[in-house]
């Protein structure tokens, strides 16, 4: 049974057009859209209205919080940028933050590289950078992710900038 769907996106670095396209395409398909920071757009910009957003390391002078938790359909979700959690070198600080916040899913950005794992029963997910990807999947030209949470599993699907699912980036993790 599906409990809820969350869209995670990150690191658009001022690219408002892609955020508008993603929101227009998926706003009616997901329960909440969480932005993992480095939007480089102020919260007064209408582009940001559909997203609950955190501040990243290049969001100079912007007033977004460093971390957000929200509960949707009984599932507690978190989002942070990750730069203060040293995500470039280890996921341990992020995992500890997620455990302390008692979230089921924690989204983060900063590395510009997509990544997903389950640690201590918590899904840790980096949607990758939608506008400036790095690493193994940079040739996709940018990614974001939708996570479906059920009682039994986390179902993850990554999408490209053309709003298409990437077949090789669909996965499922047990919640037990």
UniProtKB/TrEMBL annotation:
State its Enzyme Commission number(s). Answer: 3.1.4.-
Q: Which keywords belong to this entry?
A: Metal-binding
**Which molecular-function annotation in GO is an example for this chain?**
metal ion binding
**Would I find Membrane among this entry's keywords?**
no
Question: Does Coiled coil appear among the keywords?
Answer: no
Quote the Pfam families the UniProt record gives.
Metallophos_2
Using the record's annotation, list all stretches that form the Calcineurin-like phosphoesterase domain.
4-151
Primary enzyme class: hydrolase
The cofactor(s) it depends on are: a divalent metal cation
By sequence similarity, the record places it as follows:
Belongs to the metallophosphoesterase superfamily. YfcE family.
Q: What is this protein called?
A: Phosphoesterase
Its source organism is Limosilactobacillus equigenerosi DSM 18793 = JCM 14505
């Amino acid at each position: 049974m599906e409990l809820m769907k969350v869209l995670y996106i990150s690191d658009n670095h001022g690219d408002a057009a892609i955020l508008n396209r993603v929101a227009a395409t998926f706003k009616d398909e997901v329960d909440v859209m969480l932005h993992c920071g480095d939007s480089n757009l102020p919260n007064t910009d209408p582009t940001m209205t559909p997203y609950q957003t955190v501040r990243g390391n290049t969001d100079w002078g912007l007033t977004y919080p460093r971390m957000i938790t929200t509960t949707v359909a009984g599932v507690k979700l978190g989002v942070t940028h990750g730069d203060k959690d040293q995500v470039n070198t280890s996921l341990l600080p992020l995992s500890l933050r997620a455990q302390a916040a008692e979230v089921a899913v924690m989204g983060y950005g900063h590395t510009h590289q997509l990544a997903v794992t389950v640690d201590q029963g918590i899904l840790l997910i980096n949607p990758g950078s939608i506008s400036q990807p790095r690493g193994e999947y940079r040739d996709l030209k940018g990614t974001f992710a939708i996570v479906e949470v059920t009682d039994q599993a986390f179902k993850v699907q990554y999408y490209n900038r053309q709003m298409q699912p990437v077949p090789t980036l669909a996965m499922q993790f047990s919640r037990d």
